[in-house]
Amino acid sequence: MISKLCLSKNKKIAFIQANWHQEIVSQSRIAFIKHLTANTDIESEEIDIFDVPGSLEIPLLCQRLAQSNKYEVIIAAGLIVDGGIYRHEFVAATVLDAMMQVQLTTDVPILSIVLTPKEFDESEERIEYFYNHFSTKGREAANACMQVIENSRLFA
Hints:
By secondary structure, the chain is an alpha/beta fold.
């Protein structure tokens, strides 16, 4: 456990998850919460979970949550897949660019677990791979969150 790593007074963490391929995306949330709470003084009750239909809806909710002044860090998770047209590349770039703009405008860090795999199909083997991959990304996001919180103390 990182000694005394906790959130600022009256602040929480927001975790936004897109519901497109929810069974896969939710693995990142589960791993994030488990890893963060096991390695800090942050409690699961200090993490608010928000659902959106798809990844395109993530940036607006990020903005609204950041503007609420209730959250120290926002984490966003989604899976943008190639449905046989180039739209997935546009969606991924749009979502990530907008999330970056929100964090630069609001000064609230936004961490991304919005992934765009090169290849995705719904075979049992690939689903298992992405379950595990999103779980790994959730733990990595928890580590990044800890570092972001520590770094924010430099400017408090």
